[in-house]
Amino acid sequence: MPMANVFDDALRRLLAERLSAFERRQLADAGLKRAAVAITVVPQAGEAAFLLTRRAPRLNAHGGQWALPGGRLDGNENAMEAALRELEEEVSLRAGASSVLGTLDDYPTRSGYLITPVVVWAESIDGMKPNPGEVASIHPFPLSELQRPDSPVLVTIAESERPVIRMPLGESHVHAPTAAVLYQFGEVALRGRATRVAHFEQPVWAWK
Q1: What is the three-class DSSP state of 207?
Q2: DSSP element (H, E) containing 88
Q3: Strand pairing of 113-121 and 33-44?
């Protein structure tokens, strides 16, 4: 049965405790470019939600696709710093280090990135707006969407022996790598299960 997802201090403490207890796996970059994404927990009519964006359609890489705010690490940034910077740049949400609840496993992508997911708690979404150069629109989804009985969906493809993961969201769905990251967040932070996701495959169109 899904946990209560009221946006309050009790939920914040629970998420932080579960993420702190989780033994995160940090992978060697092996030539991959380091990147970070922000899984941002926000209030929505008193309930807790998380943010996804639709990438601007004119972007060269995966324009129009669902995405978490994030991008490549700049200079000497660590993953937390990069995730918070990208959150502000993409959707105008400013959060400090004290807003970070924890991190999840590194996830290697076929397109050449090693992604570190950073979980962020945002007390308010006042002033939130998309950066039109990168983001077409911003969409809060209830945390309950990550606890659906029909999720995740695993698909086999001829190009890989690994299962492709897909997460239903509302009337749509999201693919890996975003789907893998969100699935682990749901398992670790919402269900208290130490589930690994680096073995999940991405659809072939996401390999470039």
Answers
A1: helix
A2: helix 79-91
A3: parallel
Whole-prediction pTM value? 0.94
Q: State the Cα–Cα distance between residues 38 and 60, nearest whole angstrom.
A: 21
> First-to-last CA distance in the chain?
38
Tens digit of pLDDT per residue, the chain (208 long)?
456 689 999 999 999 999 999 999 999 988 999 999 999 999 999 999 999 999 876 655 545 689 999 999 999 999 999 999 999 999 999 999 999 999 999 999 999 999 999 999 999 999 999 999 899 999 999 999 999 999 999 999 999 999 999 999 999 999 999 999 999 999 999 999 999 999 999 999 888 7
**Please, which residues have CB within 8 angstroms of residue 128's CB and are 6 or more apart in sequence?**
91, 92, 93, 138
Q: What's the rounded Cα separation, in Å, for the pair 150 and 26?
A: 29
CB atoms within 10 A of CB 4: 13
Q: DSSP string of 8-55? A: SHHHHHHHHHHHHHS-PPPPP-TTPEEEEEEEEEEEETTEEEEEEEEE
Q: 121: which strand partners? A: 41
